[in-house]
Structure formats: structure tokens, C-alpha cells
Design a protein that fits this description.
Layout lengths: L6 E13 L8 H12 L19 E13 L3 E5 L6 H8 L7 E6 L3 E4 L12 H11 L4 H15 L14 H14 L4 E5 L7 H18 L2 E5 L3 H7 L2 E6 L2 E6 L1 H9 L8 E3 L13 E8 L6 E3 L3 E10 L3 E11 L5 E13 L4 E9 L6 E12 L5 E6 L4 E6 L24 E2 L2
Parallel strand pairs: 3-7, 3-8, 5-6, 6-7, 12-19
Antiparallel strand pairs: 1-2, 1-4, 8-9, 10-11, 11-13, 13-16, 14-15, 14-17, 16-20, 17-18, 17-19
Helix pairs in contact: 3-4, 4-5, 5-6
Length: 426
């Protein structure tokens, strides 16, 4: 049982309200023009084309009653759609702005990366900004001196460390900013979608560093990202935010599924006649439905095979049309492909059915998307599509009593799997 001494951040009934449409135009002349236009009921001459005009004193609740406890050494993921309140929450924790109502208690110093170059002075060099950030955190020059070589080496920008940071690329900004934030002595590290700018190798390096400082030094990490793979890799707990509220607080996988809306399993018969096609396709043949033959719903135990029937309708005479279903997990990362090349031959204006069996025995427990496609392989090896629907089928694999929970791919880092080919059922 954790005690109050274990709490790094305690948030109680936190609210943040913004008044909309009251920001000045930047000059006295512009403000007077905007005021005179409002008085006469005219359009604001200084407003951007297409921007929404807000009524006087109209308000917006960016955060609406947040209650949250974060413990020391915890790695908390924060996910949600744009405008959910994630960045506002981190700005309040970083004291960039103050709350309208509620209370925040923080035990420890906070180092934040809320956007590229936060806390940097563009006129100062990279080296000078390291000392500036350290001073803001309350560190002495001697303390920063002991760590500066580690910071510069980690940032991979030693060649440019004495160049003003206004000349840095966005990737260089991120590398130096992260190196500073992760190496200086702060108990709480806050990251807001900043790693998306860096290259993949540096992103992995940052995630490994955050895991290390959390485990070895007991530092608390709050991490916002739209990349579900990095959330899964780093975090041990996750909250989902929506319209300024926390709608889920718990396991990382369940949080991701709630965020992506993967709650319901597909019905036994999936009608595809009105489903939106998500790739530019040639005319000739279209899927009408997919009907599950072996089960009542698309829910299977580990190791099971599934049988299903395709109903198709053609408008042309075609030969050697292939069928495939891409298998992807919750964040739309491809897991494998169910493939039946040169499966269909049809006459003009024909309705036909094809029964298939799929071996999905190597899939780990969890929910998956299936993306069905009809295609034709050209003479040069490319594929022309006749039909394609992203994530038309949702399936769930259930763990059984004899399922080995220690299998390496249970962590969902198993990579692509080559499943056996589909078999045509007579």
C-alpha cells in the first residue's frame, strides 16, 4: 500500500477555463479597429479567414474537474484526441499557466518539454542554454559542469554546441532539449509529443533513457504521445482524456483500445455494400459481405482456425483476382497478412460466393483489425486494387488456460508473422 510520502503529483478538482475571442490584435490600432467593428456589428477586419467568431465573454473549459494521483517513479501515459486537454494539463503542472479552480500538489522539481525549444533562448548557444535550463531548475554552475559532457554526448550535437540554437533544425532542438531535461537533476520529467520530431534511432534512445531514469533513479515521467507504440513501450499506467475530463485511468492496453474505439467485436455477417472504400480502386468486382461460418461472432480462442464466406458481385469478366486481409493490432501496426492469390475468376455481372479457412493460431490474445482487399497482380509485379476497406472487421483472440503467458510475443513486440496461406473450402 502506497503512502502519502510516495505521491509525486496530487491533482484535485482541477479546472481551466479560457475566455474566447478576447485576445488583442497585437497593436493598439488593431484593437481599436476590432472594437469598432464589433460595436457596429461588422466582421472583425483583423480576424483570420475561416476562423470562428466568438461572442463576448464566451468561455471554454479546457479542463473540467480533473482528479489524478501520480506516484514517485511511475511512468504515466496521457492519450486523447486533439483538444482533449492533454497539453493544458501539462502546462498547469509546469506552471506555464495557472488553474481557474482546483489544487495541484507537487513533490519535486519538474523538467518539461512541452514543445520544440521550450525554455531555450534562440540567441544563446546550445552550451549557454544548458546552463540557463540548469539554473532555472535551481542547480549550481558546479553541478551543471559535472554533467555537461554527458548532456552534449547524448544530444549528438557537439559539433554545433557553441552555435546559437536559432540556427538549429527542429530535430537538433529536440535532441538537445531532451538531453538537458533528462540529465539535469529534476524528480519529475514531462514530455508532450516532442519525440515525434526526432529520428527513429534517437527516439529509441530517448525511450530507453526515460525507462532507465525511472527505474534506476526513481524519477516520475508524464508522457503525452499519439504514437501508441511508444506509449506501450514506456508507460506502466495510462489515462485517456476527452473534452477536458479523464474517462479512463488504468492498464495501458485497455487505455489504447478505448482511445482507438476498439470495443465492439464485429457481427457474424458483415455487410460491406455501403462501407466506404479507402483506396482508389478499379471497377470490375466488389465485396458484398463477409460471413463467419465457424463461430457466432468474430471471437476465437488461441490456436483456433476460422472459416468464413465471401460474397462478391462482378461487373466485368475477370481472371486470377486475389483476395487478402491485412491483420493489424490496436495502433494500426501491421502484424501479418492472410493471403489467397489468384483466387477468383468471374463472368460479367455475376454474383458468387467463396468459402475460406484462415489459420490464425499464431496470433497473441487481443483485438485486431482485418482489412479486406481484392487485387490483381500486374506483369511487373505491382498490384491494382478492385476493392479495399480499412479495418472492416474487428476480431478478438481469447487466452486459454494452457496459453503460455511468457511467450515472447505476448508483449506485442513480435513483429510480422507469416501465417499459413488460406485454403479454399469445397
Amino acid at each position: 500500500m502506497r503512502s502519502e510520502q510516495d505521491i509525486a503529483i496530487q491533482i484535485t478538482n482541477l479546472k481551466k477555463m479560457y475566455r474566447l475571442g478576447t485576445i488583442g490584435g497585437g497593436t493598439l490600432q488593431g484593437d481599436i479597429q476590432s472594437w469598432w467593428a464589433r460595436v457596429r456589428g461588422k466582421e472583425d477586419p483583423n480576424s483570420k479567414i475561416g476562423s470562428k467568431a466568438y461572442k463576448k465573454n464566451e468561455s471554454f473549459m479546457a479542463l473540467d474537474g480533473i482528479d489524478l494521483t501520480v506516484y514517485k517513479g511511475e511512468r504515466l501515459g496521457i492519450i486523447g484526441h486533439n483538444g482533449a486537454g492533454k497539453s493544458t494539463l501539462l502546462k498547469l503542472l509546469s506552471r506555464v499557466t495557472g488553474p481557474t479552480e482546483g489544487e495541484i500538489k507537487i513533490d519535486g522539481r519538474i523538467s518539461s518539454m512541452l514543445e520544440v525549444g521550450t525554455g531555450f533562448n534562440g540567441e544563446l548557444t546550445g552550451r549557454e542554454n544548458i546552463y540557463l535550463n540548469g539554473a532555472i531548475l535551481g542547480m549550481t554552475k558546479a553541478e551543471i559542469d559535472r554533467k555537461i559532457d554527458q548532456i552534449i554526448d547524448f544530444s549528438e550535437v557537439r559539433q554545433f554546441i557553441d552555435t546559437p540554437v536559432k540556427r538549429y533544425s527542429s530535430g537538433m532542438y529536440v535532441k538537445l532539449a531532451f538531453a538537458v531535461a533528462s540529465h539535469l537533476d529534476s524528480e519529475i520529467l514531462i514530455m508532450d509529443e516532442v519525440l515525434a520530431v526526432g529520428d527513429m534511432a534517437f527516439q529509441k534512445k530517448c525511450l530507453d533513457k526515460m525507462s532507465q531514469v525511472s527505474q534506476d533513479e526513481g524519477r516520475t515521467i508524464l508522457y503525452v504521445s499519439h504514437n501508441m507504440n511508444t506509449i506501450r513501450q514506456l508507460c506502466d499506467r495510462c489515462i485517456v482524456m476527452d473534452h477536458g475530463k479523464i474517462i479512463y485511468n488504468g492498464e495501458v492496453e485497455e487505455a489504447i483500445e478505448i482511445y482507438l474505439g476498439l470495443i465492439e467485436i464485429s457481427k457474424q455477417i458483415i455487410d460491406l455494400t455501403h462501407t466506404q472504400r479507402t483506396k482508389r480502386c478499379s471497377e470490375g468486382i466488389k465485396l458484398q459481405s463477409i460471413e463467419l461460418a465457424s463461430h457466432d461472432k468474430w471471437q476465437f480462442a488461441v490456436g483456433e482456425k476460422i472459416q468464413f464466406k465471401l460474397t462478391l458481385k462482378s461487373t466485368k469478366a475477370l481472371q486470377n483476382i486475389g483476395f487478402r486481409m491485412r491483420v493489424s493490432c490496436a495502433d494500426n501496426t501491421s502484424v501479418s497478412m492472410l493471403l489467397a492469390p489468384k483466387l477468383i475468376t468471374c463472368e460479367e455481372n455475376q454474383q458468387l460466393s467463396v468459402a475460406l479457412e484462415a489459420d490464425i493460431s499464431q496470433l497473441a490474445p487481443g483485438k485486431y483489425y482485418l482489412t479486406p482487399s481484392l487485387y490483381e497482380t500486374t506483369d511487373v509485379g505491382t498490384q491494382d486494387f478492385y476493392d479495399h476497406m480499412n479495418n472492416a472487421v474487428i476480431i478478438e483472440i481469447l487466452a486459454t488456460e494452457n496459453f503460455n503467458e511468457n511467450m515472447e510475443w505476448e508483449s506485442r513486440w513480435w513483429g510480422n508473422i507469416m501465417l499459413p496461406p488460406l485454403k479454399k473450402v469445397d
